[in-house]
Predict the structure.
Amino acid sequence: MDVRDVSSYIDYTLLRADAVAAEIDALCGVAVEAAFAAVCVNGVWVERASSLLAGTGVLVATVVGFPLGADPVSVKTKQTRDLIQRGADEIDMVISLGHLLEGDTDYVADEIRHVVAAADGRPVKTILETAALNREQIAGGVNAARVAGARFVKTSTGMHASGGATVEAVALLASLVSADMGVKASGGIKSLDAAQRMI
């Protein structure tokens, strides 16, 4: 697998709070040139990215409940609807980490289910923060995502103090998801070698 093969797996991401329009434009330009799968931007930039990427085959992903996941279900649901209307093709949703840590997977499944419904057929990726969880908690998060209809589970926001993606976490997620789900490795992936190992 070389860099051309890897590019189709990449969601090229810019989620800094201080990102400016010129950086979003550059992000989209690089994504098209490199044939990345998607760009991932904060909600405020979804319309701009959607306009820039129209007809290119590069999707627009955006985040809900980012980066803490601590918003009420109603807020995550409303945010999802709004971002879909603005042109988002995919939703990366941060789950309520506190509820998952307590073992309240019913709450986590319920919030995911609401976001999946609000996404109206667009893929929802649930962000678990695997570095902050033990194996049992990760399995609970994956099961909640599965029963709620999420398309992917994702390792992390890249913002949590406990860290981002590891090869071990990606392998664990891959062993737990159902056949119709995917795994998204996210957080701290800085080299071709790391990406290849996670793929």
